[in-house]
Amino acid sequence: MKKIIQKSTLSLIAFSMILSLAGCADNTDSTVSAGQYTASAETATATAQATSNAISAKDDLKITGGTYNITASDSAFDVNDLIAISDGDITINATNDGLHCEYNDDDTVGEIYISGGTFNITASDDAIHAQTIVTIDGGSFTINAAEGIEATYVLINDGDISITASDDGINAASKSSAYTATVEINGGDITISMGSGDTDAVDANGNIYINGGTIDITANSAFDYDGTGELNGGTVTVNGEQITELTNQMMGGGQMGGGQMGGSNKNRQAGGPIGGQAGGGNGGL
């Protein structure tokens, strides 16, 4: 059972990094020496060079501002339940993942919610990785990674997102029993540039729904999905040509036409990520 804890702003010095967060250290769930904590940072300046995960939290990590420059030989942020970011300037260079939220003992938690901020993420694996759902309601992202954004449910409502990837740009993988693997895009300005070989710009073990936004893809395979693929709105350009339906890149190189323009499928997934409705949560920020 998840503990009920007191949220506060935390000042700490942890393992091989120095993290300065304005406030008081009265969070009863904080373990400063272990680097596992629940913290809310309103203002911060952090520079971290870590030989493993740079910042770890066993419950929630909320960032509402500050500047963070993090180099990690594992993941930069490693959290069990929730990462919620509403603002901040975050630069990451990670050997594993940039933002990682996952709990091995419970596949119904592990969420990332972002409503603002500036992100420059270089990662050898995933730039943004959540076990259940990644929701992006805003922010500016420059991503260079093997995979850009991965979760069971990837929900993008807004934001300026640039992804350069060598595997999948956006990937909905079946990691959680709480959600059907889905990529849902309702808005934002998204650019995806893929490396050569067996790569997909938008890949889903389930469904892909594009209801709005501007998406510019450069890739051998733009879309790969096992369920339904629907283009209901927005402007989608693949290799310089605007498309009006999703073409599915099947395993082995075959292609199959996807859904054409039709009724809106916005917010299909029942029960949102944070705050009760998909795309409507604010992570408590």
Folded structure, characterized:
- With 285 residues, this protein is mainly beta.
- It is 0% helix and 51% strand.
- The protein contains no helices and 28 strands.
- It has strands at 12-14, 17-21, 39-41, 44-50, 55-57, 60-63, 67-72, 77-79, 82-85, 89-94, 99-101, 111-114, 118-130, 133-136, 140-151, 153-156, 160-172, 182-185, 189-194, 200-204, 207-210, 214-218, 223-225, 229-231, 235-238, 241-243, 245-249, 255-260.
- The chain has a 17-stranded mixed beta sheet that branches.
- A hairpin with a 2-residue loop joins strand 1 (12-14) and strand 2 (17-21).
- The model is unreliable at 1-40 and 251-282 (pLDDT under 50).
List the keywords.
single chain, 285 residues, mainly beta, 17-stranded mixed sheet, nine-stranded parallel sheet, 0% helix, disordered N terminus
